[in-house]
TrEMBL record:
PANTHER family: METAL DEPENDENT PHOSPHOHYDROLASE, METAL-DEPENDENT PHOSPHOHYDROLASE. The lineage of its organism: Bacteria, Bacillati, Bacillota, Clostridia, Eubacteriales. Residues 15-123 form the HD/PDEase domain. It comes from Desulfofundulus australicus DSM 11792. CDD domains: HDc (cd00077). SUPFAM superfamilies: HD-domain/PDEase-like (SSF109604). This is HDIG domain-containing protein.
Length: 183
């Protein structure tokens, strides 16, 4: 599946602009991590872009989220490693994160929320207005971006990355698509 085909599939199932922007952000971070680790950027990007494809119809039933999306992606012919990464990004299922891609998607999902929240509290409301030290300070504030699981973000250590390294890759990746995100 090409990136354009994946985007068309995503927008067939997701209609909420912020969910689409979240998907773009996770795609960007996954591509940045793939570059960092010398992995397939296209494949990792697909996992990031499509990871929440089922969210609008499963959001009220967390036990269904990511299972239905993964099943849909399998029917669409996506590679098993992408399907599995999407399936295991939702911790509720208790499935093991086996590959580097699995670990990257799991940690990247909440990181994007933390980064967006950081940009939105700045007067400029731009990704260019924040840096890693700012994000690290906000990371330790429990009341800031409550929905961004700190434990999940800290799982970047499973990839051999420090929190600072992970935030740097994530922020730079998202800054590269700031225009598409409206930030």
């Amino acid at each position: 599946m090409t990136r354009n085909e994946a985007y068309a599939l995503l927008t067939r199932y997701l209609k909420t602009p912020n969910l689409i922007k979240h998907s773009l952000a996770v795609e960007a971070v996954m591509r940045g991590l793939a570059r960092h680790f010398g992995q397939d950027e296209e494949l990792w990007g697909l996992a990031g872009l499509l990871h929440d494809i089922d969210y609008e119809w499963t959001k009220d039933e967390p036990a269904r989220h990511s299972m239905e999306g993964a099943d849909l992606l399998a029917r669409e012919g996506l590679p098993e490693e992408v399907v599995y990464a999407v399936r295991v990004h939702n911790d509720i299922h208790g499935l093991p994160r086996q590959s580097l891609m699995d670990r990257a998607l799991y940690a990247s999902d909440p990181l994007t929320g933390l980064i967006v929240a950081g940009a939105l509290i700045k007067p400029e409301k731009k990704l260019s207005a924040i840096d890693v030290p700012f994000l690290l300070n906000r990371f330790h504030e429990k009341s800031f971006a409550r929905g961004a699981s700190r434990e999940q973000i800290k799982s970047c250590s499973e990839m051999g990355l420090s929190l600072e390294e992970f935030m740097k890759i994530g922020l730079e990746s998202m800054q590269a698509i700031a225009k598409e995100m409206g930030l």
